């Protein structure tokens, strides 16, 4: 009987540790997905801005792509810090979008790169 109780307690403790680890793993996976998508998005935006004189529509296409990716990322994470960083990045994208709509063919993308840096901070352990 004591063995069964000891086994049950040990099993419960192991499950608790595993489930806690899963939450940490989920957060890490959210960060990896987010960091990858953001790096790709920022790269696309930088390329679009640098070649805007050849095809100004590329900036708008890149911004639309980024907005879609960020919306998907926001929907897949339950980490509050990561959600806030994604929100900040979304605001940066909207700032660039407004500049482009106002006729700026070489907008300052610093708000986007700064917000991407915040995501990196959230995703960096310790």
Explain this structure to me?
The protein starts with a helix and ends with a helix. The protein has four helices and no strands. The model is unreliable at 1-21 (pLDDT under 50). By secondary structure, the chain is an all-alpha fold. It is elongated and about 45 Å long. The longest helix is centred in the N-terminal third of the chain and has 49 residues, at 2-50.
Termini gap:
43 Å
Proportion of β residues? under 5%
Task: Report the radius of gyration as a whole number of Å.
Answer: 21 Å
Following the backbone from N to C, one meets helices and strands in this order, namely: HHHH
Helix content: over 70%
Taking pLDDT < 50 over at least 5 consecutive residues as the criterion, the unreliable ranges are 1-21
**Helical stretch count?**
4
Shape: elongated
Secondary structure blueprint with pairings:
Blueprint: H1 2-50, H2 57-76, H3 80-101, H4 110-123
Helix pairs in contact: 1-2, 1-4, 2-3, 3-4
Give a quick rundown of the structure.
The chain has 126 residues and is an all-alpha fold.
Main attributes of the structure:
126 residues, mainly alpha, 4 helices, disordered N terminus
